[in-house]
Amino acid sequence: MSNRSNSGAAKEASAKRGSRLPQIALIWSQFTDTHVDRCNAVAERFQGRAEILAVEIATTSTLYAQFSPGREMGGGRKATLFPGQSFDAIPRWRRLWKCLVAVRRAHVVCLGVSYGEWDFLLLCWLLRLAGKRVILTSCSKFDDFPRRAWFELVKAAALSCFEGVPPFAAAKWPRFGEFG
């Protein structure tokens, strides 16, 4: 009799694990109100269909120094990987490892950190090789530089780990509509 109840308990536990919602992770170097708005929009759109994980790498950064820190999120779960630290002062290998661990359960990972940060480009390749959907949600700050064909070809190959690059308006993220 105890074997049956153990077997039943195992099946029940397995069913509970299987009923977990898929996870969408959004990563930024530091949160500002704009990032919180994006996370809230995704959480609202996928309410009941996906778990939202908002990953803030550090509490401060040079890039967002002039912005106020992001307010509290209304939906999803926020994780700050290096609280009280500056994004720019954290060694790249530590950022890479902590991000990889933080988003290991995610089905879809949206990267808001520049692909010019090699540790995040490597992160995206590792995630893609692990079968995750990886979407770039940051924009190039260097569109006005002269372009060279050979460089653009190399860049296209390096960025082929990304499944898509949606516009910033959450309502216009077409790839999200296909999720779940």
What does this molecule look like?
The protein is α/β, with parallel strands linked by helices and 180 residues long. It is 37% helix and 19% strand. It has six helices and five strands. The chain has helices at 2-18, 33-45, 92-102, 118-129, 149-158, 174-177; strands spanning 23-28, 51-60, 77-86, 108-111, 133-136. A five-stranded parallel beta sheet has the order 3-2-1-4-5, sandwiched between helices. β4 (108-111), α4 and β5 form a beta-alpha-beta unit. α3 (92-102) packs parallel to α4. The longest helix is centred in the N-terminal third of the chain and has 17 residues, at 2-18. The protein is globular and about 45 Å long. Mean pLDDT is 79; it is low at 1-17 and 168-180.
Major β-sheet strand ordering: 3-2-1-4-5
Major beta sheet, specifics? 5 strands, parallel
Beta strands, count: 5
How confident is the prediction overall: mean pLDDT? 79
* Amino-to-carboxy terminus distance: 39 Å
- Which word captures the global form? globular
Low-confidence stretches: 1-17, 168-180
Approximate strand percentage: 15-25%
How many separate helices?
6
Radius of gyration: 19 Å
Structural class: alpha/beta
- Reading the helices and strands in chain order gives HEHEEHEHEHH
